[in-house]
Each structure stands twice: as structure tokens, then as C-alpha cells.
Amino acid sequence: MSEGPRKSGGRRRAGRSNKRERVMPAAPAYVKRQIPYYEFLNEEGLVVLEEQADWLMQEIGLEFRGDPEALRIWKEGGADVKDTRVRLPRGMARELCKTIPAQFTQVARNPHNSVEIGGANHVFACVYGPPFVRDLEGGRRYGTMQDLENLVKIAYQLPAIHHTGLVICEPCDVPVSKRHLDMLYRHMRYSDKPFLGAITEKSRAQDSVDMARVLFGTEFMENNCVIMGNVNTNSPLLVDKVVTEAAQVYCGAGQGLIAAPFILGGAMGPVTTAASIAQALAEAMMVGAFTQLVRPGAPFILGNFLSSMSLKSGAPTFGMPEPVMSNFIIGQLARRLGVPLRSGGSLTASKLPDAQSAAESADSMMSTVIGGANFILHAAGWLEGGLATGYEKLVQDADRLGAYQVMLGGMPLDDNALARDAYGEVEPSGHFLGCAHTMANYETAYYDAVLSDSESVEQWEDRGSKDSARRAYERWNQLLNDYQAPAMDVAKDEELKAFVTKRKSELPDAWY
Amino acid sequence: MSEGPRKSGGRRRAGRSNKRERVMPAAPAYVKRQIPYYEFLNEEGLVVLEEQADWLMQEIGLEFRGDPEALRIWKEGGADVKDTRVRLPRGMARELCKTIPAQFTQVARNPHNSVEIGGANHVFACVYGPPFVRDLEGGRRYGTMQDLENLVKIAYQLPAIHHTGLVICEPCDVPVSKRHLDMLYRHMRYSDKPFLGAITEKSRAQDSVDMARVLFGTEFMENNCVIMGNVNTNSPLLVDKVVTEAAQVYCGAGQGLIAAPFILGGAMGPVTTAASIAQALAEAMMVGAFTQLVRPGAPFILGNFLSSMSLKSGAPTFGMPEPVMSNFIIGQLARRLGVPLRSGGSLTASKLPDAQSAAESADSMMSTVIGGANFILHAAGWLEGGLATGYEKLVQDADRLGAYQVMLGGMPLDDNALARDAYGEVEPSGHFLGCAHTMANYETAYYDAVLSDSESVEQWEDRGSKDSARRAYERWNQLLNDYQAPAMDVAKDEELKAFVTKRKSELPDAWY
User: Which of A198, A158, A182, A206 is nearest to A397 (CA)?
Assistant: First the structure.
């Protein structure tokens, strides 16, 4: 790494000197959990789900299609492969998963922003994948590369977003064949937080790893994870070549893979949530096992994305009690397996950053963090079932992520926290407003949500009676206006740009 | 009780035949918890807080002012009383609290709506106390008796609201000296769910108990709790006569009392949350002990209401991580004490039913239910730090309460839930949409949130691009329009009206 961490770190802190955000921890750039997990199911219940997953892998098996090399790897690894159906002898997946690191570091180009994934750590990442964007003034429209750049610049300045992901929105104005290059460049240049690589096609995954090599150096990447691919299985029980090729490219290079079954219960899995959780576990565990056949010890994150369904329309619903419960349960299952977990996010079906959006996102996210997910994609910006990225939603969510971050830090119970001296100073029926203990502690006592308005109704009216969405609109505009790019070595920047230019000249314009 | 439970129960169900609400459990009219508690603090941490509460009761003591009879009761009970300061020998409060019922029934005039309070049960009650109301068209204004009546009628029809409370808004158009009579009549007549009684003055508490006697019969009330008073201590460490007189009236009549310290950290308690939790425990526990001196075995609910503070203005903030943690912790402390708990609610500082309102309410409420509060006042309708009742907020919150209700019911793990047959019917890469297991289960598989919009953006736009607040506005208007009063014996109704008329003629118009 040739980046000047102190220099860019200094700039970063300067960019965050906003007084209202001073209660955010300056480092580390992820959350070290200090609170217990919520043990939702008992041992017996967890074993029922694990046995169901084992049964699926052993008796039903998964289809691995479109990638003969994947089938060869499975065969060589000892799986029962018939045509494209792969079944694993009882215990094989769990055995293979033992070499998955329980915790690993994803290194950022600014090492202050490197994140620990797994164990008792939490990383909040941006929404991933929406083709549309929405903001209060501009309305709903296809995302562009300019939107993606804006969103990277905003996310970079929000301390509770630890990871910018990749497709904060789909930049629909650039051919699919080329957009991964422009996207990656923006994550690399306009932020110094960790990010993801492309997966839609094997050569795009390879481009991503190659661009990371420009940024971090080939040698450094032999022993460090600096980039990951995020893939979905094709539930139910189908894994296509996007997944297995990404596994070969990323894990083959010692980099990370996240595999998340997306199961809309009643469609891609049974309509009963317990069955869908077990299926998700089986699917993700088999991809995890596959990564370890590709390269034992490669970083892998077991993913889970479970949605309930509207009885009115069959549309996916979010923040509902069934996926909330699954967030608790998959956390338990992942810890028993000993692998890092991706689940949850600030999910909603709402079109707008309104009360529905916030309620669904909060219940989804609170259960995600209590449940113990390590890598939380879609933690900020998700709207409309993942079809749109909300500019306002991004900053609203980040404000709540700061609150979860404080909660995950736990509650001090030391002598200062118990404040016995204060009761000597303040008599019963008195008040603690000016007492020594209050003066010594008030600046750090409470989370200060930037976007929450807690003033009197008269003050609020004087300031224009702005609702949360309007304040969020003003905030992201301010952030975009205030943006200063993190420092980057000019030669490195040129090298990255040259890579992008060269690859774009080699590739056809294709929209798939 | 002379009410015809089957008859009015039948009407109630008829009034709820709305297809969209069919997934709500028809009975019982409260939540039987099937999921574990979240054990946030370990044994050592809990003991630290209990010892702090013991220290406060023993060394600092509480002031009991304005009620000499209360001091006499304390002295007779063995407390150390000096002037108005009451200190309890170590262990005395805990010993006295042993006669508090761990669980009791509050009987409703429709016995189908009676609720179990304590143990592994949860009761959701309306917001209590706001002087203002707000709705989308009418804006913010002082509450009136008509508003209170409207809100009772709406709450009556919302299945996830189990208890209508009392002061859903302050009816500011009726003199304070008389409004309790009109309020109680409306709760008794326009709903058949359980409710609370007045506490602001001893004679008003007595009027409440007397009206309950008209409705339920004196003899019935000797052995059944049908009404409760809800009081606040004057934190820090002061208990005034409103509390001790309410305890004597309600508990003296074998009825219930809820005592909730309202602590804005940094003002009415230390700025560190741990100290404020311990102080709240000490204050509420001492009132609980007092109720048991008044009448051993009287129903008592230990209350807790902890607010954090805005660093910008000193205003109370809600839904923030510190009170969220306190919701988990006070649940643990109350279970160790073995008494029913009131805490939390759908709290927010927001003026509008917007994203801030929903996020803060959701985090507040999710932690409340996971933490195990038994009686949850302010579960629906709270806005603006408790200064305003939101019509839209009431129905929005109720929609989310239904989701918590489903979560509290836990996740089935039986053979049907595991759906192994479905994997015989559906091949890998297929779909479960029409399979037998889906057809047999889809109607009950997922919570169907009435107010959540999960349709496509095109459908949503066709229907007018309505946000959550607009849909909530339409829903409460529809409910008010559709309202049908529960059946009531005509003679009983006349007797209640006569009581109200007589008492109002005896009382002066007073505005305090």
C-alpha cells in the first residue's frame, strides 16, 4: 500500500469536524460489539434447523449449472455429483466450512478505515443494486454514474457507514459491459473506505481484482483481503456460474466472497419461515464449502436474505415479524457454524422515505444488529424493495446506524456511571442540570442524532416545519456541497484511470 | 358483571371481519409471549444496579410530601421516617414487594377483552396525557372531549390495542375538575376493552373507582381488578400526595396502581443512564412497597420511563440507544423482583408522523417488547415527546403492534413448518408459488400490515402516490365512519350517565 494513511486520515477527520457529529467514535471504523446476542431459539430448535439443512444437502442436493469446472471441483472434493446435482455426505459441508476464517480484516486504502468482519464485529455497508434513485426534488428516475458518484461522496462522509459496497445504484447510462470499471474507480477514488467488486460476469470479477491489484499491490493481496464479491444463489437450491466463477476469481486470489440466498418465502422457498431459513443455511453453506475447495482459508461470509410476502399481491414485504425472527435465528446458526454472517439491512417496501419506510427499516435493522450479523449490506439507502436508492433514505438510515452503534457499545456500569456523588450534591426533588457529574458527562452521555428534531413545536415551526425527509434532503445536499476527496497518490490515480480506459477500449458496449 | 359477553363479543368480531385484518389473533385480547427475553446485562451488572437502588432507599431515602397519612403508614410499616424523608432498612422494600401479584387479570366489561398483566404476557395501551392532538387535515390543536371520544372509538376497533388507557388526549374544553367523569364514561361506553382511572386528585380517583363499581358491581371488585391508576413519582426521589392518595384509593379498593418514575437523564436523574435506571428502580419499588402496606396483595405495576436529552437544547429525546438499553435492563430487573413491568412505548420527539417518528417509535417499541414489559402505555398515538396525540400515529403504531404481536408468538418448527413434502413437489430452480404446502399455509404464513404498501411503484402511483401518513389518515377516518358501539345494558348506561350528571352538578368548574 502506497497510500499515506496519516495524511488522508487527517483530511478525513478534518472533513468530519462538524460539531454535531462529535459523539461518533473516531475509530475503529466498524463496531466492536460489547453486548450479548439474543438467543431466540433454544438448542433443540437450532438442531432441528441444522438437521433440515443437512437433509437438504444430503438428500435433495443443489443444482450447480453452467460451470463444468465447478462440478469438477466438487467431484474432486468428494461430493456426490450426478449430472448437475451436487449432494454432500452428511457433515461434509460443515467440515469444509471449518477452514473459513471466523474473522478477517478487509483492508481499506486508508488503513484507519479497514474493517474487521466476523466475531463480535459489525460493519455497515450501503444499499446494493437498485436500478432507480429517488430524491425529494428530483423524484424517481434511473440511476446514473453521476448518482453513483454522488452517493459514494455522501457515504464517505457518514461515519456510521463503514463500507461503501459497490452498486449503490445501477449507473444505467453506462453499458453493463463497462460500468463495473467506472463504478470501481469511483469507490476507489472518492472514498477511502472498503468496497466490493463486480460479479456479473467472470471477466468483470477479474477486472475488479485487477483494479484492486493496482491500488493495493499484488503481493499485498496474497496475504490480505481488500475486495470481495457479493453473490446470490438462485433459490431454490440452484447455484449458477455467476456464483462459482466469482468464487474462483475472488477466493482464488485470496479475496472474499459473500453468498446470500435471496428467498421470497412462498416463491423461492417454502411459505413457512423455518423451512426458508434452513434452505438459506443449506444454500449458503454449500457455497461456503465450495469456496474452501477453491482455496482453503479464503474469506467467506454466509449470507441470508429472507423476505415475507404480501397476501394482497404476492409482492415481497420487509420489516415484518417473520424476517425479523429470521434475523435472530440466522445469527445463532452462523455463530454455531463459526463463520461471519451477512443478513438484514434497513429494508422496506415503501416508495418514499416516510413512516412506513422508517418503521420497516428500524425493525429490520434492530433485529439484524441484536441478532449479530457481521456484514450488513443495505444498511443505508434502501427503498422500494431494493428497486430504488433514496438519497434522503441514505442519510436517514446513517443517522439511525449511529444509534445502533452506540447500543452495540453497551452500557457503562462503573463508579462514574453510578454517580453516587451526584446524590450528595442534588437533594431529593432537586435537579441534576448543573451538577458536577452532569457537567463532566453530558457531552458523551447521549447519542446525538443529527437528523432528529427534538426542539419545541414553536422552534420547529419557526424553522419551516420541516419533516424528516426535508431535513434529510438538506443534509445530503450539504454533504455533497462540502465534499472533499480523500488524498490519493497522483501516479496511482493515473494508473487506475489508465486501466479503466484500456479495458473500456477493449470491451464492446453491451447492455447485459 | 351484568354484561352479555357472548353478545358483545359477537358484535366485536363482526366489527372486525375486515378481510385485511384476518391474521390478527381473535383471542386472547393480549399477547402470550412464546419467545425468550433478551438478557442484556449479566448477573454482576444487575446486582450492581440493585445495590445502587438499595443504597438510594437506605442511605438517601425518598421524600414523601403532602400526605401525613402516607408517613403514618410508612412508620407503622417499620420505615425510618425523619420529617418527610423515608428510608428503608436494607431488604425491606424487596420483602414488601413479595406480596405484589406476579400476574393478575384486569377484567374488561367484555370478558373476551380482559387482559393478563405480568408473567409472560404483554398488553398494549394507548398514549396517555397529551394536551394536543394532530391530524393531517386539522393540524395541531388542543384536544377536546370529541377528540377523546373519536380516539376511543378508533382504538376500540384496532385489535392490537388491548387497553384504551384513559387520557388518550386531554379534553381541554371541559374543566379539569369534571373531565375525568366524561372521559371515563366514554371509555366505558364506546369501548369494551379495559381502561384506567383518574389520579390527579383523590376525589377524582374515588369517582373513578365509584364509576367502576356502577359498571362491575362492588362485590365483584372485591376480588377482581377492573381499574388502575397510573402515577408518576416526582423524580428525583420525591413522591407527592397524588401518588400516595391514588395508592390508598385504588389499592385500598383492591384495584391496581402503576407507578412510573419519569426521568429525563441529566435533569430528574443523573446524566449517566445506569444511575437513572437504578434511581427509577428505587423510586418505583418504594411506591410498590407502599401499596403493599396499604393492602397486601394489591395489583401493582412497576413503571419506568427514561428519556435521553438533546445536547443541542436539553430537550428530551426518544428512541435513542440509551433508553433502548434501559428497556432491556429494566425488564431484567423487574423479572428478578417478580413484579409486572410497565415501560417503553412508541415514543418519539417528532412533531409529525414522519420517518423520524416511525424510526424512534420502532426502536423504542422493539426494545420494549424484546425487553419484556408487561403493560405498555403509550404503545400507540404518541407524538412530540408526549405533547400531542396523532390520529395518524395511532393507526400507524397499531399496525406495527400487530407485527410485534406476531413476533412475540414465536416461530413454529413443527413438520408443517419444515415443509419437507414441498421439496418433493418443487424441484431445485422451480418455485413454491402454487405448491400444496404453500396453498395450505399462505393465508397464515405472514403478518399482513394493513397500512404498509408493498405494491409496485406503478400501482402505488395509480392510487395517488400516497405516503404512510395519508393512508393512515384515510384509515382512521374509515374506522371512525364504520364505528359501531359495543352492546351495553340500557339500565347500566343510564346509571353511569346519572352518576356523571350528579357528580358534575356537585363539582365547581375548575381548570386545575
Answer: A158
